[in-house]
Write a structure and sequence with these properties.
Blueprint: H1 16-22, H2 25-28, H3 32-48, H4 54-72, H5 85-97, H6 110-146, E1 151-156, E2 159-165, H7 166-191, E3 193-194, H8 210-217, E4 221-222, H9 226-231, H10 234-260, E5 268-269, H11 288-311, H12 325-349, E6 351-352, H13 354-362, H14 368-377, H15 382-399, H16 408-414, H17 422-425, H18 428-433, H19 443-461
Parallel strand pairs: 3-4
Antiparallel strand pairs: 1-2, 5-6
Helix pairs in contact: 3-4, 3-6, 3-8, 4-5, 6-7, 6-12, 6-19, 7-10, 7-19, 10-11, 10-12, 11-12, 14-15
């Protein structure tokens, strides 16, 4: 077991139960690369500032690079009895290079060291998730382009409302996921502030060059208050909030795909590679990928709630409670990093049944609003037109007919303004195509929406944060 580097003040070792209880290395070992990179930058700065001898700084940097190389090669055995990954790396460094290793922690506390490592890891997580979201957006935009003329029912209250297109429906989700990318960009910006130099809570008397460490690690700025620098976890809450909202969007989409793939809807067919069967019912094809994403959404919500609850009563500055931040963060990140590529691949291989969607849109009187609008175009006040359309829908419900089944004579019995052009006016195609304002479901409008989204993606991939 590695010696505790802080044990000088204590007369007896910590109890084995306490060692096990407080150990974070089972989960924080994934920070090792960030920890080593942060320590290399810190040691480099210490040497440049003549805070420690240049030879010691060079030995520390070389030793840390050796540890990193061994880790990446799979040749480093992490001591699970170590208190945390930060102590493990420092103790191992001292074992390897001797006395010089003891100088690494000069002008640094574990409080600002941990804050640095987590911020570095959070930046990587934000970048990774944003990339996964852009992959999903590629699939959405491609599918939307293929289904500009695929008419389907739009719903409110899960009741058929008005005819739209599948492209229009898919682009609604594209808007959601574009906002998700922006939210992860915001979380990245919050994490992209360098806290090293905050010390335990009040900075340090050493003449550190914080801006140099900021430069070496590629941060955009340094924290402006040491108390906040070590106690802030808002950037993780922003990540967890963005993750929760993103999972909510995925869950809504999955819920619709579950419905659409049922016999009752019959408008989507999952690829066999993303469905499973039943151990007893041979006919079953279950949309398990969708159901798992939907279920894991609650897990990510729990991670956000857990960290909010940890942080809500903490006085400044650092408290050991904050060790709980990493498991919630890592779990949410891991969950999202599994759900997004699985969902993207599943969506790419899903078959949408155009004929079934069109037939479904023709049922449920989705053109009733257009019938009323037709009368408005003939000079009838909208409220009167709405009433006439409702009366005709009621008649069709009783008789098991569609609005287009009504004869011109029957229509004129309801209102004299009806004429032969009514049938073209309430066709599904006309209902969709007339809604050509920006944001509407007409193919011309959706095509423009796709073009704008593709331009947005192109700028993102060029490195622009929008």
């Amino acid at each position: 077991m590695m010696p505790k580097l802080w044990a000088g003040r204590f007369e007896k070792p910590t109890d084995a139960l306490m060692d096990d209880f407080q150990s974070s290395i089972p989960f924080d070992q994934r920070l090792i690369e960030c920890d080593i990179a942060g320590s290399i930058a810190h040691a480099t700065m210490l040497g440049e500032q003549n805070i420690i001898p240049a030879a010691d700084a060079a030995a520390i940097v070389d030793g840390l690079k050796g540890i990193l190389a061994d880790y990446r090669a799979g040749a480093l055995e992490i001591d699970k009895s170590a208190e945390d990954v930060h102590m493990f790396v420092e103790a191992l460094l001292t074992q390897r290079i001797g006395e010089a290793g003891k100088r690494l922690h000069t002008g640094r506390s574990r409080n600002d060291q941990v804050a640095l490592d987590v911020r570095m890891y959070a930046r990587e997580a934000c970048t990774h998730v944003a990339a996964l979201l852009t992959d999903l957006l590629d699939v959405l935009l491609s599918l939307a382009g293929q289904h500009l003329d695929t008419i389907m029912p739009g719903y409110t209250h899960l009741q058929k409302a008005q005819p739209v297109t599948l492209a229009f429906h898919l682009m609604a989700y594209a808007q959601m996921f574009m906002r998700d990318v922006n939210r992860f960009d915001h979380a990245y910006a919050e994490a992209d502030v360098m806290p090293l130099g905050s010390g335990a809570l009040a900075g340090t008397t050493y003449p550190l060059n914080r801006e140099r460490v900021c430069e070496l690690l590629g941060f955009s700025d340094v924290t402006d208050n040491a108390l906040d620098g070590v106690s802030d976890r808002d950037f993780l809450l922003s990540f967890l909030s963005a993750a929760s909202i993103c999972m909510m969007h995925l869950s809504r989409f999955c819920e619709e795909l579950v419905l659409w793939s049922s016999n009752e809807f019959g408008t989507a067919v999952m690829d066999d590679g993303f469905a499973t069967g039943s151990s007893i019912m041979p006919q079953k094809k279950n949309p398990d990928a969708c159901e798992l994403v939907r279920g894991k959404t609650g897990r990510v919500y729990g991670d956000l709630t857990a960290l909010l609850t940890v942080m809500k009563g903490l006085p400044l500055a650092y408290n050991k409670d904050m060790q709980e931040d990493k498991e919630a963060f890592f779990d949410a990140y891991d969950t999202l990093a599994k759900c997004l590529p699985t969902f993207t691949a599943m969506l790419r291989t899903t078959v949408f049944r155009r004929e079934a969607m069109y037939a479904s849109a023709g049922l449920g009187f989705t053109n009733a609003t257009d019938l009323a609008d037709y009368l408005v175009g003939k000079g009838v006040p909208f409220r009167d037109a709405h009433h006439v359309s409702g009366v005709l829908v009621g008649k069709c419900v009783k008789e098991g007919r569609a609005l287009t089944d009504l004869t011109l004579n029957e229509l004129r019995q309801a209102h004299s303004a009806f004429d032969t052009d009514v049938y073209e006016a309430i066709s599904l195609e006309a209902c969709v195509n007339r809604r050509s304002l920006r944001g509407g479901p007409a193919p011309v409008s959706v095509r423009q929406s796709i073009d704008r989204a593709q331009s947005w993606l192109k700028r993102r991939r060029a490195g622009e944060r929008i």
